[in-house]
Write a structure and sequence with these properties.
Shape: elongated
CATH topology: Porin
Distance between the termini: 27 Å
Strand order of the largest sheet: 1-2-3-4-5-6-7-9
Oligomer: single chain
CATH architecture: Beta Barrel
Helix content: 10-25%
CATH class: Mainly Beta
Order of helices and strands: HEHEEEEEEEE
Radius of gyration: 18 Å
Number of domains: 1
Strand content: over 45%
């Protein structure tokens, strides 16, 4: 998985031309899950740690790539089973930037994502590990501030991601989507 991330980032950075700037941002967000089951086990908000790179390609349009990691611990009430969750998501797409002033811009974006989920449940003396992956979509809105070579933003991202459920049979899907509310700080070079 680490090799895949490094390969994608290498391809993105190697495609840069001297006349294009790139923004690299460290982002932190609260993940607000859409699924009632997710909220019951893991709570109403979970931390998400992200790195995002954005490169302008034409006028107000930019390409973006994002890597995010969401760790969480939870407990199901009826059985008091403990559960550890790790979700890693790679995403990329297109942003449209609208300049409000020389320092402030708003943006909207759309993209696709690919997520990996690992859930470890402790049920009495038994431990069950579920690993799933799947494709989804991402929608972005944000306010970006630039100050010299520094950038910062506040953002709302909405992620749609249906993963095969390890707890069911057949084609039932687990809803791993939700809203990310966060902020970022980065550099432009």
């Amino acid at each position: 998985m680490i090799r895949l991330i490094l390969a994608i980032l290498f391809l993105f950075v190697s495609g840069l031309r001297a006349d294009h700037e790139v923004d690299i941002e460290a982002r932190i967000a609260a993940f607000l899950p859409q699924s009632n089951t997710f909220r019951e086990i893991y709570g109403r908000a979970s931390p998400s740690y992200q790195v995002e790179a954005t490169m302008p390609i034409w006028e107000c349009f930019s390409l973006w790539v994002n890597a995010s990691y969401l760790p969480d611990r939870g407990q199901s009430d009826p059985l008091e089973d403990r559960s550890n969750l790790d979700i890693f998501t790679m995403s990329g797409g297109l942003k449209y930037l609208y300049c409000l002033t020389s320092q402030f811009s708003v943006y909207g974006g759309i993209g696709i994502n690919y997520g990996w989920l690992k859930e470890k449940k402790q049920m009495g003396a038994e431990t069950r590990i579920t690993r799933e992956n799947g494709v989804g979509g991402t929608f972005k809105l944000g306010l970006l501030k630039t100050a010299g070579c520094f950038v910062s933003s506040v953002f709302v991202d909405y992620q749609i991601q249906q993963l095969p459920s390890g707890n069911t049979t057949g084609s039932e899907k687990a809803n791993n989507g939700g809203t990310f509310l966060g902020c970022s700080f980065g550099v432009r070079f």
